[in-house]
């Protein structure tokens, strides 16, 4: 496992977040990232290399009284090194610090890599949401109780 420096992204990291997001299979509109990151409504946790390069990020918001993991992305050449796992654990810890007792997320039903990661942390599927995404893809709605139990880590 590669231990990254996990810390909050600030406006100075915006260009790195936007650049990384372009490598996502489903990039977000730039204006949404700008307003989320700079507006302070959504917290971006970044996984940084020692020299300051952003290797991945997790975006945490709130929905109906629960923490909501809104986005998660790791640079393609840095996958399977444990970064996604570290980012979700950090997001869960922060959500717990904020007083949330549940962390929820939605993931495309076909995204087996992300689903495996969430399951390994104890997330359970609570509902399927048909045609949730703008292209008609269904979503799997998952959640886990906070704080995360380290016993769920494999
Ligand atoms: C999903 C994603 C964030 C995972 O990041 P990552 O850093 O590669 O994940 P990790 O290395 O922390 O993996 C942790 C565990 O998740 C599971 N996992 C991750 N990628 C997997 C894959 N491609 N296939 C099967 N299991 C996978 C494994 O259980 C893995 O543990 P292991 O490597 O010891 O077997 C990354 O693939 C990504 O950025 N994908 C594109 C964006 C995306 O789909 N985001 C999720 C939106 S809901």
Written overview of the protein:
The protein has 154 residues and is an alpha+beta fold. The protein has one domain: Gcn5-related N-acetyltransferase (GNAT) (Aminopeptidase, 3-Layer(aba) Sandwich), CATH 3.40.630.30. 27% of the residues lie in helices and 32% in strands. The protein has helices at 14-21, 30-39, 83-97, 112-120; strands at residues 5-8, 43-48, 54-63, 66-74, 102-108, 124-129, 139-145. It is globular, with a radius of gyration of 15 Å. It starts with a strand and ends in a 9-residue tail after the last strand. The model has no long low-confidence stretch (mean pLDDT 95). Coenzyme A (COA) is lined by residues 24-25, 72-74, 79-85, 107, 111, 113-114, 116-117, 120.
Quick tags:
154 residues; alpha+beta; Aminopeptidase; binds coenzyme A; globular; 7 strands
Order of the strands making up the biggest sheet: 1-2-3-4-5-7-6
Helix content: 25-40%
**Overall residue-averaged pLDDT value:** 95
- What is the molecular shape? globular
Which homologous superfamily in CATH is the superfamily?
Gcn5-related N-acetyltransferase (GNAT)
Tell me how many strands there are: 7
- Discrete helix count: 4
So what's the CATH class? Alpha Beta
């Amino acid at each position: 496992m590669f231990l990254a420096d996990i810390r909050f992204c600030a406006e100075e990291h915006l260009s790195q977040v936007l650049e990384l997001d372009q490598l996502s299979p489903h990039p977000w509109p730039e204006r949404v990232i700008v307003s989320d990151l700079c507006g302070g409504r959504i917290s971006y946790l970044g996984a940084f290399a020692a020299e300051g390069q952003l290797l991945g990020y997790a975006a945490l918001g709130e929905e109906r009284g629960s923490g909501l993991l809104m986005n998660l992305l790791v640079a393609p050449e840095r996958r399977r090194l444990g970064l996604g796992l570290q980012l979700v654990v950090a997001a869960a810890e922060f959500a717990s610090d904020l007083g949330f007792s549940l962390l929820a997320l939605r993931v495309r039903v076909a995204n087996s890599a992300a689903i495996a990661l969430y399951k390994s942390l104890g997330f359970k599927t609570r509902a399927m949401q048909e045609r949730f995404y703008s292209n008609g893809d269904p979503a799997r709605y998952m959640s886990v109780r906070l704080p995360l139990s380290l016993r769920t880590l494999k």
